[in-house]
Amino acid sequence: MSEMSQGHVDCRVEQGIAWVGFNRPESRNAMTWSMYDSLERLCRELEADPKVVAVVFHGCGGKAFVAGTDIKQFADFEGGEAGVDYERRIDSVIAGLENLRKPTIALLEGFCVGGGAAIALACDFRYCTPSLKFGVPIAETLGNCLSITNVSRFMDLLGVARTKEVLMAAELIEATEALAAGLVSAVFEPGSIHQEVERRAQAFSRRAPLTVQATKEVINRVLAHRRASADASDDWIRACYGSRDFQAAVNKFVSKTLFEWTGK
């Protein structure tokens, strides 16, 4: 991909709030490898910055938070082991965000799918506009498989039934259902969501830092104890990413070729 199409993960710090923006609006902020690298680096830097009291993650352009990983990058995958390596890489990036010892907020506008949904689920709080479309429609698009750790995050927040709707039936959750399910804490209009999120982020400057950090860390320890080992889904990741169906689905996206699912 050209340098222009690689996109950026921007960061600015204002009054103790770090605003981290996924900046590739021409592609609904779909993530490139370099963007994942930048996100991982920024999480380390924000962790070490004593001036930062909270971190807000948002998409640029107002139409999407993150529309997954750019599918073109899968064109070079050869076999199921490449899928295992990819899911391990995503697990590492998302874990760095999830374990940030600062309150994290996902500001969701429009599409929040695939890798974007994983990023949002790893945040402590989520707020959205009425345009939210949340999910992982890979049963319709790529025919791949999430890591067991990311599946666990869906189950932790959505429960088993809704997780099956999202991953097996490829259903997208909209704002009203997201609020009812507890996936988001509030729904705001586009013109006010940034101010509302900023107000909530600023409030952490008046909270006891050790209590906030301890609570987040203890909750994360409970979640980690409940989750299966990272390699518990490797057999299915290899099977899906190494399948002819996955290769055909990627080719359809890149070359606009037709195909039908075969289950092989």
Automatic annotation (TrEMBL):
GO molecular function: enoyl-CoA hydratase activity
Enzyme class per UniProt: lyase
EC number: 4.2.1.17
GO biological process per UniProt: fatty acid beta-oxidation
Name of one Pfam family that matches: ECH_1
Alphabetized InterPro entries for the sequence: ClpP/crotonase-like_dom_sf, Enoyl-CoA_hyd/isom_CS, Enoyl-CoA_hydra/iso
Keywords for this protein: Lyase
SUPFAM superfamilies from the UniProt entry: ClpP/crotonase
Family recorded in the similarity comment: Belongs to the enoyl-CoA hydratase/isomerase family.
Name of the protein this chain belongs to: Enoyl-CoA hydratase
